[in-house]
Write the structure tokens for this entry.
Amino acid sequence: MKKIVCFGIILLSLVMMACGNQSLNIQSQIGNENMDSWKTVLEEKMPLIGHRNWIVVTDMAYPLQTNPGIITLFAPEPYEQVIAKVNGMIKKAPHVFAHVYQDKEQLALSEKLAKGWDAYKEQLGKVLDQKEVTYLPHEELILKLDEISKLYQVIIIKTNLTIPYTSTFFELDCNYWDAEREAAIRR
């Protein structure tokens, strides 16, 4: 009987150690991902993500969303450099292109309402073609991410920009297939 109890205690101890190590591994992975450069993480994820995935570059006050399908990274570089890097990575990717969205609230902002607005718009205009941007209400975009992240990966890159409603949302789509050809095979 003592042998069985002793064996049970040893077995239980081993199981608990294994669970503890697994928990430590998960925490280490999370910690390492957050410690890595956002560029390194995004470069590693680019071949894995595809149509229906989103990449979002945000200002500092953007909320930390808790859905497990959302990865949040921090970029210490200026906002326009982060946008340029993300946009460039998407354009270089052979498998995706992006539909670009920004907060509709931007259309009502001015330097008077948000200090630094004019410089932000000027810098953004140098790295992102504003003719390709679709404007939607901020809350609608956040809710869309919440819904999408239940099935698909969303990568959010927060910057230290402190101007409101300056998030840029890249909805990825397939670069080598289009809606017209999709419709043709469905007929």
Q: What stands out?
A: The chain has two domains: 1-35, 38-186.
